Amino acid sequence: MDFLVQMAEGFIGMFQEGGKTFIALVSGIIPTLITLITVVNALIKFVGEERIERFALMTTKYAILRYTVFPVLAVFFLTNPMAYSFGKFLPERQKPAFYDSAVSFVHPVTGLFPHANAGELFVWLGISAGVTTLGLSLGPLAIRYFLVGIIVILIRGLVTEWITALMIRRKEAEMNKNATLGGTISG
After folding, report:
1. Contact 98, 66 (CB under 8 A)
2. Can you cite a GO biological process for this protein (predicted)?
């Protein structure tokens, strides 16, 4: 009988803890997220979508900007998952690398800019819980997380662009080989 009581208390206790977590989010991070989203949307409207698009085209000219500044801006302004639509400014051969960079940045951005990827906020809160438990400031961790994220997205972008170029060359060589064989057989 005691076992059933413990099971029932444990079951309800799980939901009570979930309720406490929900209340903490409603009174803590959710108002911050709503405010940040409002400010970012107002900034986009104020600056103008056309100007932002022109700037995006400028930041894709060089690989170092394409895989650092460009994904950071995409994730910051459009948030996850809309950030991936910034790929429309790139030629097809660079889109996989941009996607790889942008999707890799949606985690490290949450420490400084939680509005950019509210879905990953739980990852950041889990990481930062240990630091908070020690009584340390989250600022240095958030900045390091952000900077390491930029380094990682640059490396991933460059490597993925290289792999994509390699695959395109192989595919073109295969198509040329098949075209040559097809011409030899029919000739």
Report:
1. yes
2. phosphoenolpyruvate-dependent sugar phosphotransferase system
C-alpha neighbours within 13 Å on the C-beta side of residue 6: 3
Measured at the CA of 48, the angle between CA 45 and CA 50, to 5 degrees, comes to: 140
Is 178 a residue whose pLDDT tops 70? Answer: yes
User: Does the pLDDT of residue 170 top 70, yes or no?
Assistant: yes
Q: What type of residue is 134? A: L
CA 55 to chain centre: 20
Q: Give the model's pLDDT for residue 89.
A: 80
CA angle, 109 as apex, 104 and 111 as ends, to 5°? 135
Dump the DSSP string for the chain.
Answer: -HHHHHHHHHHHHHHHHHHHHHHHHHHTHHHHHHHHHHHHHHHHHHH-HHHHHHHHHHTTSSHHHHTTHHHHHHHHHH-TTGGGGGGGGS-GGGHHHHHHHHHHHTTGGGGT-GGGGGGGHHHHHHHHHHHHHTT--SHHHHHHHHHHHHHHHHHHHHHHHHHHHHHHHHHHHHHHHHHHHHHHHH-
